[in-house]
Design a protein that fits this description.
33% helix; alpha/beta; six-stranded mixed β-sheet
Length: 296
């Protein structure tokens, strides 16, 4: 007997047992209905964990061949990341350096050579990506070395309109371009060439750099700039995890301006963050030598 007819009959001959039977029947009907709704409902599609590949400061320099960018393109084909982040200082822009201007080491540097070499580095990198069956998100956070161009036009107004960061053609290769000191966000992680330590906008640094990123950023933060590697993780009270990461650099040559001790501190390689979800993932280091041996 349908539930409605059963209820009508109960009203004609009310009894305590009858009401109990009716309530139990209603509960059974509701249980069966919930099961049917659950069976017919589409399966909930939780976001698939993603992979980020982060390129540290790579310093394309006219005095150094661009071979490492060919290897880098091959690595991207192998890893198949959903997001590729160029953390900045892809272009070294030594011709605009204020550190060694007027010194013997500065002789022969030219703006057009710096720009052309950085563009060729992107060309050989993207050549290796031809034929990919998917399109990763490409993020470029401008570094202080690319920012030398903006700084030069600010300090020498006569250069305004003659040189520009547009000369590097970053957007022409399909990269999102984020201005110097402006973070980019992907899957809950903040990326920037470096993060400010305070109101003076000096870069976060020091022995416990990654922990400082978490302490000052209040979320997962990834930066370059220092050329060193550091990694820290914290667990929030709700159980969610955050990470702080300094990704090192991607070049094999010696930086003469830094000296031997600083060069020895550099982490040279690429960082891959796998299973990225809600601002956290599993960090993997791939050394420069490993990439060179495999793809060089």
């Amino acid at each position: 007997m349908p539930v409605a007819d059963d209820f009508e009959a109960l009203l004609e001959s009310p009894s305590e047992d009858g009401y109990k039977r009716h309530v139990e029947r209603l509960r059974s009907e509701i249980h069966d209905l919930r099961r049917e709704i659950a069976r017919r409902a589409p399966e909930s599609s939780s976001p698939k964990p993603r992979t980020h590949l982060v390129i540290g400061d790579s310093h394309s320099d006219p005095d150094v061949p661009n071979d490492r960018y060919v290897w880098l393109g091959k690595l991207v084909r192998e890893v198949r990341p959903d997001v590729v982040v160029d953390i900045g200082d892809w272009a070294d822009m030594g011709s605009l350096s204020s550190y060694d201007k007027g010194k013997r080491s500065f002789e022969g540097r030219r703006y057009h050579k710096d720009v052309d070499h950085a563009i060729k580095a992107r060309e050989v990198f993207h050549r290796e990506l031809r034929g990919l069956r998917y399109k990763p998100r490409l993020i470029h956070t401008r570094g202080n070395h690319e920012h030398r161009i903006d700084k030069a036009t600010d300090e020498q107004p006569a250069l305004d309109g003659l040189i520009s960061t547009d000369d590097l053609k970053v957007k022409d290769f399909g990269w999102e371009e984020h201005p110097f000191m402006v973070p980019a966000f992907a899957d809950g992680i903040a990326y920037c060439h470096y993060f400010a330590s305070g109101v003076m906008s000096r870069p976060i640094g020091g022995m416990h750099l990654a922990s400082a990123l978490l302490r000052l950023g209040f979320m997962s933060c990834v930066q370059g700039h220092s050329h060193t590697y550091d990694h820290a993780e914290r667990t929030r009270v709700d159980g969610s995890k955050v990470l702080g990461l300094s990704v090192g650099c991607y070049f094999g040559h010696y930086m003469s301006w830094a000296g031997s001790q600083a060069n020895a501190m550099y982490y040279r390689g690429i960082v891959v963050i796998r299973e990225v979800e809600s601002g956290y993932g599993q960090v993997e280091k791939i050394s420069y030598e490993t990439i060179r041996r495999k793809h060089g």
